[in-house]
Structure formats: C-alpha cells, structure tokens
Amino acid sequence: MKPAKKHMKIRIIAMGLLAAVFLYCLIRMGGILSDYNKADTIYSDIRTSVFKIGYASNQTPNTISNSNAPTPAASPSPDLLFQVDFNKLKQQSPDVTGWLYIPDTDISYPIVRGSDNDYYLKYTYDGVANINGSIFMDYRNAPDFSDLHTIIYGHNMLSGAMFGQLKKFDDQQYMDQHPYIYIITEKGVLKYQIFSQYVSKDSNNSYQFQFTNEADFGAYIQKLLSFSYEAAAWQFRVTPVVTLSTCVNDVTKRRVMHAALESFTPAG
Questions:
Q1: Is residue 159 within 8 Å of residue 36, measured between CB atoms?
Q2: pTM value > 0.85
Q3: Which of 51, 57, 119, 250 has the fewest Cβ atoms surrounding its Cβ within 10 A?
C-alpha cells in the first residue's frame, strides 16, 4: 500500500473513532440531562403534593402556605410551621423516615432509609432509577433520629439539586444568616443548629457512630468544631447531632455539615 493511501486510511479510521466517541458523549449527556429533568419533576411533584410550609407572625398567625411559597428571610430563625402528608409519602415509599428542609436553599426533600448505603445513591425515593438518587440516612441509624449521631447522604449535583447547595455555607455571613436545618417526622419537627461544616479528609473520622460515654461524645464534637471553615456561635451540649454528607471533586474527601438538635416540636 502506498504511504499516501495508508495515511488516508489511518485518518479515516481516526475520524471514525472520534465520531463514535463524540456520539457516545452526546448520548451520555442526553441521558444525564434526561435524568436531571426526570428527578426535578419527581421531587417538584412530591413537594407540591405533600409538603407545606408557613410561619407564625403578628400579621399572619399560624399560616400554612403551599410548598412553593418563599421562606421569610428577615430573621435567621423564623417561626416556621410545617405540614407533611406522610400517609401519601409512605404509599409511594415505605422507606420514608422524614422530610429535610433548609431555609433559602432548594434543599427540601423526603428522607429515606434503605437496607444499605448503595441503593438510594441510584434511585429516587419512590424507586425510580436515576443518577440524582435520594436524600437518605445511613442504614445503621435508628429511623426515628434518636441516635447521638445520625448521618444523611445526598449527591452534589452539578445542577444544584440534592446537596449541591451545601457549598453556600462556606460563606460565614450566609451561615450566620441561615443557622438552622429542619427535619420533619410523623412525631414532630426537629430543629437543628449548624455548628460546623468543611470538606472532610479520611483522617477526620467525621462519621463516628459509637461513643463510650458523654465525655467521649463531647471530645468528638470539639474535634468536629476544630475542622470547620468558619466559627459557629454555638455552645456545646450533649444533644443528638445530624450530619449532612455529600461528595466533592476529590473522591478521597467529602463535604460535611454538622448540626445539633436545638428543639423538638411535637406534631399536632
């Protein structure tokens, strides 16, 4: 074969391979965007269907609005009121244990608990295969959030969905203005105050479950405080802690946020 023809053949093969890779990338990207849209629809529909939020004030006492209403941001601790239709939620998924809400973010999702920590990485709360997955608690935790340390996982989606907005709390002013997260259960509303958030290294041991006594737990909390990017106006006390965990670009690290139980408001 003449060199010119040989080179032409190589170029044609190379162009064919590049075209195949490009086509694969297009198909893959199309699938990702389709999953994003499907997950947005699934979670938007369930918020509209089962979740309502309002706040108590002199002007509108004990008002509950629909789930699309904006959260009042005039105070870092508005007196929020919640209604969640758990009967309807559990008809779609018996694994639902609560609802997570963080004011002035898009984080408003049902929390599920599976038989392992893998399934809900790839499935929505109602069992639909999707790369967005679910917001889910560690399967080793008690489903009623009674453990001293409960861990809740969610993907860090490029679209900002799931736990994609936790990075907002890197800003000290933002965290000062948004110090609380809420978990609504069938028994009532758990209000937690954020006290530490950072990107965790494997050596940080941010996921400890077992503690020998209160002193051991206290030492652990002080360690979590020392990792935080920003100082939190919080005084230690022995109270249940919840940790939100998501991935970052470095596969050896995780973004974590720790919050301590401040109050519990019984349902009804």
A1: yes
A2: no
A3: 250
